[in-house]
Amino acid sequence: MSSHAYIKLVPSSEKGSVTTEDVIELFQYYKDITGKTGKQLDWQYGEASFPYEIKEKPEGKGKWFYLKSEQHNYHIMLLGVDNELVRDEDGTEREQTYIQITLPETSTFGDKGKANEFSKFLAKKLKGELHLFNGRIMYFYPRK
């Protein structure tokens, strides 16, 4: 059975909404910074920290993409961006953007570890609310 994690952008998040292009840019940034760490350590850390290729299909353009790996311990994970209507505490409705990370049945334990790592990275950068695969919630935005 597939499992899901969500990064929800709340009113105090860095941005009000994101697109798949924004998420891909954040992954490019992640690859750059881990590559620089690898240079400092004189080790190929960049390849170990991001063992995936970013792939987009025409039917998913602007809505979802996937990360595919040819390495032994990794396989695939899907990422999508969408909106939902939520009701605030005062009763007003607003549209909330979220990023969904899906691990299909064919995903490995390595994929789950990387998905947790990537979801925390994205939630920190966007100052969002992270709903983990196990149902727990992590808050990366300033709370009152």
What does this structure look like?
It is a single chain. The protein is of the alpha+beta class. It has a single domain (3-37, 49-139), classed as TATA-Binding Protein, CATH 3.30.310. The chain is 31% helix and 30% strand. It has helices spanning 20-41, 45-49, 109-126; strands spanning 3-8, 53-55, 64-68, 76-87, 93-103, 129-131, 137-139. It has a seven-stranded antiparallel β-sheet with strand order 2-3-4-5-1-6-7, with helices on one face. Helix 1 (20-41) packs across helix 3 (109-126). It is globular, with a radius of gyration of 16 Å. The mean pLDDT is 91.
Write the layout of secondary structure elements.
Elements: E1 3-8, H1 20-41, H2 45-49, E2 53-55, E3 64-68, E4 76-87, E5 93-103, H3 109-126, E6 129-131, E7 137-139
Antiparallel strand pairs: 1-5, 1-6, 2-3, 3-4, 4-5, 6-7
Helix pairs in contact: 1-3
Overall spatial form: globular
The run of helices and strands is EHHEEEEHEE
What's the β-strand tally?
7
With helices defined by DSSP (H or I, 4 residues minimum), what is the helix count? Answer: 3
Widest β-sheet, arrangement of strands: 2-3-4-5-1-6-7
Name the CATH superfamily classification. Answer: Rbstp2229 like protein
Q: Structural class given helices, strands, pairing?
A: alpha+beta
Quote the beta fraction: 25-35%
Averaged pLDDT: 91
What percent of the residues sit in helical stretches (DSSP H or I)?
A: 25-40%
Which fold name corresponds to the CATH topology? TATA-Binding Protein
Classified by CATH, the class is Alpha Beta
**Major beta-sheet overview:** 7 strands, antiparallel
What's the CATH architecture?
Answer: 2-Layer Sandwich
Uncertain stretches of 5 or more adjacent residues:
none
How many separate domains? 1
- The rounded Rg comes to 16 Å
Q: What gap, in angstroms, lies between the N and C termini?
A: 37 Å
InterPro entries: DUF1885, Rbstp2229-like_sf
Protein name: DUF1885 family protein
